[in-house]
Design goal:
Layout (H helix, E strand, L loop, with lengths): L9 E7 L2 H4 L11 H7 L4 H10 L3 E6 L9 H20 L5 E3 L8 H13 L6 E4 L13 H10 L3 E4 L5 H7 L16 H16 L1 H4 L5 E3 L6 H12 L9 H8 E4 L6 H11 L4 E2 L10 H10 L4 H16 L2
Parallel strand pairs: 1-2, 2-3, 4-5, 5-6, 6-7, 7-8
Helix pairs in contact: 3-13, 4-5, 5-6
Length: 322
Amino acid sequence: MLSKPKTKIIAIEEHYWDPELTKTYAGPEAGRGGDIDKRLYDFADLRLKEMDEAGVDIQVLSHGAPSTQKLPADIAVEVTRGVNNRLAAKIAANPKRLAGFAALPTSVPEAAADELERCVKELGFKGAMTHGTANGEYLDAQKFWPIFERAEKLDVPIYFHPSLPDPRITDIYLKEYVKDFPLVVRPAWGFTIDTATQAIRMVLSGVFDKYPKLKIVLGHFGETIPFLLWRIDSSLKRPGQKQLDFRHVFSSNFWLTTSGFFSDPALLCCVMEMGVDRILFAIDWPFVADNKPAVEWLSRIPLSDEDKAKIASGNAKRLLRM
């Protein structure tokens, strides 16, 4: 067992795949094969062994991208209910080590709101996770606001996880480099384009004026937004445009996680911009293949023991009511 912070460790962006749902995928999102796929489908042997080896006490499970965001409306509700029911059964088999975020049938927004409520009230889920756009539409569109209204009412967060950017973006920005550097479309840059744009659009849309207690979680230290926050806010306050206190809204309604991003400078920037109470620990297992370096990093970050404990689990306990 590794040396770790003297507190429980809750990792909140840890993934799995549902075999029935992944049958609907095609192309690069249908699976990568090998050890990653083996871990995604595992709920006991490999998952718990690697949690124990690293000292991770609880994983909050969420389906990997693209989850249910690409399902057509005619099957989305039924398929998503099955996904969530199967996850709930896996968690019920080991509730001391596993918790969950719901998948949502976003192509039917009212039904997605109802499914969120069912998953929270009946299945004990801690919120929901979405992945990228919903069949090509950003979630700031008002048709999706019933989901956010219900999340605010239930007092649970929605976690915005990346998915592959629109193919047109890849074609314009990155196509010359995809062959030699395939991950430039994924975590190296494409995921950030996708998710940071979604988060910024949410603030611009006014959804937080309508639902001021809505809680959104971003992984990967906020998908670059904390590093750009001053400039975004300053630019949007210049004369000649609708007035918006971007910095206040973002700092009031968003939480960040460490998933896949174990950097002291990045952490300190986010602490300075957002405050330590809005940062939660996550690893991004099994896409980050080894839990141990993340936990080792957490144990030596240049913060006080009290702040380490907040990031390790205290903030998750409060936000997710664990």
